[in-house]
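A reminder before we start the practical. When you read a complex entry, don't treat the lines as separate problems. The point of joint prediction is that each chain is placed relative to the others, so the output describes one connected object in space. Small molecules and nucleic acid strands, if listed, are placed in the same frame. In the example below there are four entries. Take a minute to note the order of the lines before looking further.
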Amino acid sequence: MNLSIGDLARRTGVKVPTIRYYENIGLMPETGRTEGQQRRYDRPAIARLAFIRHARELGFEVDAIRTLLSLQDDPEQPCARADEIAKARLREVKQRIASLNALKKELEKMVEECACGRVGECRVIETLADRSHGHGRLAEAAAR
Amino acid sequence: MNLSIGDLARRTGVKVPTIRYYENIGLMPETGRTEGQQRRYDRPAIARLAFIRHARELGFEVDAIRTLLSLQDDPEQPCARADEIAKARLREVKQRIASLNALKKELEKMVEECACGRVGECRVIETLADRSHGHGRLAEAAAR
DNA sequence: TGTAATCTCTCTAGCGACTAGAGGTTCAAG
DNA sequence: CTTGAACCTCTAGTCGCTAGAGAGATTACA
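Here is the predicted structure of the whole assembly.
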């Protein structure tokens, strides 16, 4: 086990520059180097990076991952904190799904009603131009 | 009708710096100024900004909004292009909802199974550490 | 051992859509 | 005419990467 950064990238599915980025921001620890200053990784590095990757896929922010990693490093701690982080993320996801569903409805209405003639009578444009919207109802879903 | 930027902000729900930003990137046209170089807006400016705001709420990118605005300015054009943009956005939203639902399921499983003892046997941490994940299945949903 | 191909290194800048702050000017009410 | 809120421009920061330049290291094969 003496993997180059490229090897590690292939094994975890995390891109090479991203691995270096994670080291920069302190998510991955500094690692051993060859004489020529190239990074070399071992088994625990794979595990740690896979953990990070999975957490990112679940949408956890880097700060949350930092906390989760430090919890993992100390198995005697109570896991209430980890549970809390996961629950917070779950709430976010649910909220986001709800917002997106509202948004989907409005988009569907727009698209269905479009007779596809001239722009002058296009429902898509009309709906957007319609100023009878309260401020902020859909705002949360807009973020990508 | 001779609104200051603050008035315009209050009427549309778009923040003052954001309005200036929209002018910078060419979404809002340059507008008249007082002798002291303060911006003044009229009715069409309100309408245009409201259009932009609503489109942003629906998650359209600035580039798409640029196109939609230019279509709106010319009512004789066919509205197929507008329809297409809206449909593309709808596809994105549906895709995103699907990804988020997958994500929600996994998070729920994690949270439910957590017995909330020591980190050593915490399902949240364990699930994240579990390396038996194919690369990239959930990746799309991770973006916020 | 030579050499070519492929990594890898550091560093800086860019993405999108804003947001925050510094430091200074103008406007409107009293 | 003074005060204080609102306005101005400009730069830099947010998040989580990603791209590119220009240079050095490593490896496979002849």
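Discuss with your neighbour: DSSP finds seven helices and no strands in chain A. What might explain this?
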